[in-house]
Design brief:
Layout (H helix, E strand, L loop, with lengths): L2 H17 L4 E4 L6 H9 L4 E4 L3 H15 L3 E5 L3 H4 L2 H10 L3 E7 L25 E4 L7 H19 L5 E7 L34 H11 L5 E5 L5 H14 L3 E3 L15 E2 L2 H4 L3 H6 L4 E5 L6 H9 L4 E6 L13 E4 L2 H10 L7 H18 L10 H11 L4 E5 L3 H9 L7 E5 L9 H9 L5 E6 H6 L4 H7 L3 E7 L11 H4 L1 H9 L6 H7 L3 E3 L4 H11 L5 E7 L2 H24 L1
Parallel strand pairs: 1-2, 1-3, 3-4, 4-6, 5-6, 7-8, 7-10, 8-9, 10-11, 11-12, 13-14, 13-15, 15-16, 16-18, 17-18
Helix pairs in contact: 1-2, 1-6, 3-5, 3-16, 8-12, 13-23, 14-15, 14-22
Organism: Aquibacillus halophilus
Subunit structure: Homodimer.
Catalytic activity: isochorismate + 2-oxoglutarate + H(+) = 5-enolpyruvoyl-6-hydroxy-2-succinyl-cyclohex-3-ene-1-carboxylate + CO2
Amino acid sequence: MNNEALTRYVANFVDELYRSGLTDVVISPGSRSTPLAMTFAEHPNIQHWVNLDERSAAFFALGMAKQQNRAVAIVCTSGTAAANYYPAIVEAYYSRVPLLVLTADRPHELRDVGAPQAIEQIKMYGEYVKWFHEMALPDDTPSLLEYVRGKASRSINTAVGGNPGPVHLNFPFREPLLPDFSINDLWGEQNVSAYHYYSDGERRLNEGQLDFLISQIAEYQNGIIVCGPQMSDGLVKKIIELSKCWCLPIFADPLSQLRAGKHDKENVIEGYDAILKSKQIRDKLNPDFIIRFGAMPVSKPYLLFLKEKKNTLHFVIEHHEGYREPVGLPAQFIFADPILLCQDLMSSGRLSFDQNWLKTMLNMNEVTKQSLLQETSEQVFTEGHIIKYLSESVPDQSIIYVGNSMPIRDMDTFFMNTPKQLKIVANRGANGIDGLTSSALGAAAHGEKVTLIIGDLSFFHDFNGLLLAKQYRVNLTVVLINNNGGGIFSFLPQATNNTEHFEVLFGTPMDIDFEHIVTMYGGNYSNPTSWSEFQQLLAQSHQQAGLSVIEVQTNRSENAEWHRQKWIQIEKELLALFEG
């Protein structure tokens, strides 16, 4: 194989990706991936980012794809480099984020013979990709150039179509690996549009299906609209309209995009997680039906609530397909465009539901909010109130990227409705603690104002990602909650039942001075001692370039007890509301 054949093959592939909508690629250096890496870097319309760590690179691309709502490509060499993509690919699959995974490989004659850096890469990601294809060996015959453009176009459209997700193409390359960019008509096919054009029609219930759905709920009085994690602004508006039309409360997950923005939030119940923590309160609430949009909410009390309401009709709305229902109770899955479904439900005739049910929910929500937002000591840091002060201080038109374990749960409880136009994002596909800093940097890479709230274990898990902030001067504010270990385990039975092994196996204190790590990557570090200083530092961080880390130190056991006292207080006040 000569260099011209290699060059034309790869150049036609890369160019077709651009024509199909690709604008960004994240490259991890390596030898066997040289043809792909250099050709992407040469293409005038694709921005390339270099990340030395493949695990971080894949999460960086995931965060970028999530923010831009478009596919992002990742490129690596053969061997274990490709294996390091695995966690992010799993997350992308479950959170429905389009990634184009391009792995270089040894040619067939060097596989399974003990050649260096040669592992089995055929379908190595198993069921976690929507499509896998082993690419043909490069050649520049007309049929091969048509082939390579066809596979490029198909890969992008498969990644973004239906439920978005990752696609994997494996490229075997023989040496020599250097492309020759001096050849004529390098990119080929200059006067054509994308190789394939894909169109996707409406997914809508027919009249009979709609009538059947309406007939099932028309006889009832007490319903709930639930919205879990989702990213569509259009759906937010339609859910609000449906709620107002039917006089139904909305249980709004923090990742539903319903709690922030200028839309009407009169029926939005953001305190439902705290309300449902009490078994006595759950027993008093008996909805006839629940209609859920988006993924399963973060809230564990909501999941317990569902398990206890075995006679409640449960409808799950999915745009294309899927079975996101972990409760295990009977549910009706409706595969339709959720925006169109809301329109059709409203236009099918006004249903009348019990306004006293809505009023009860709104009263409970108000009581809960007042209790949760009670002022605390200026010098005592409580993890829940970090969310309160953060939401007050982050700039309008910005993104809050939320870490897993305790941060997302505190976000669920303490992030209240706000007129600020904020996008709340998290990696809630597989819910892991890995790659969160890299994902937030990916979301911020194109200039968006992003604030990452993260625990110390998650921050430790992704130090390598901080190099991207230094390399590209990405502006990112990190609120680092340091309780010296795994704070979420303090709420589980092992914290009190097996105290002998708790700290070693679950508490996992690290005793790390994070300031040295932050400054090593050229970041700005601060450690506030009061809430007013915390808010001041947050405001300052969004005015300065590069990485800013604000470390808030808390105590795990004190934090767990503070939360428990809050739940007791809220339960008491809600029971009084019912008795009154």
